[in-house]
Design goal:
The complex is a heterodimer.
Chain A lengths: L2 H46 L1
Chain B lengths: L2 H5 L1 H4 L1 H19 L13 H28 L2 H33 L7 H21 L6 H15 L1 H11 L18 H49 L1
Helix pairs in contact in B: 3-9, 4-5, 4-7, 4-9, 5-6, 5-9, 6-7, 6-8
Chain lengths: 49, 237
Amino acid sequence: MSEIGFLFAGFAVFWAGMFTYLVILQVKIRNLQSQIDLLENIIENHDEV
Amino acid sequence: MNLNNIYELRWKVLPPLAGVAMIGMAALALVTAPTEVIEGDVQRLLYVHLPSALASYFAFSVTAVCSILFLLKRDFKWDSAAQGAAVVGLIFTLLTLITGSLWGKPIWGVYWQWDPRITTTLILFLIFSAYLIARKSSSLDSDKSARFCSIYAIIGFLDIPLIHMSVRWWRTLHPQPIIAKLNPALPDEMLLVTLFSVLAVILVAAWFITLGVETELLSQRLLKLRAIAKINISEKS
């Protein structure tokens, strides 16, 4: 691999790593939030009954 | 210090700031910064390698401070904050090792060398991987586990000064400090781009830490809600 190839690979890994982590975090937060909303609804309905 | 105020930063302040800074950093690193005479263009990896390393130190510092606060206050939000920051630290340590390896191959002729600085950085990665494995494999609300992991994280953090001093104490392929001294050994243009890159990546790390902490706090909330739901169901039956 040429010098430019190593430079490109380094920057690509850096950007890809950060984007991937950001996407994983977003998906995880969304899933957790939806599970929390669901459970809160279940508990609320249970209390009303 | 109110954690809720920090979370407000996660979508309103940090993302636009970090985004603009990162685009600026890419432009400065790839276009504006002068080409190094001996190493050539591959030296531009400095602008992602060094900031990644400093961002990992920043994240692990947050872990250590939050661990101390947990031990003092026994509030699990600090334990969550420590875990969220530790994940970010691991990501940046991994990026440091990979970008360093890609820089090392054309300059040193090898991807990996058991050089003191590289080895102590790998040890840092392993220390905090073990911290997260230990913390995640026990119950999130286990006080004993949280205490043990907090003490472990504080001790693990001591590897960072060791990494910093490794180039002074042992014979190493890494250069002696070029920025962290009174007269930095970099030309002004390179120094400015380096400092801007460090700022940009630290901003991204700060944003990731707020998101990571939010994830851990939501996990704790979910755990509590599950416990409440279980009690309600058992009361009904």
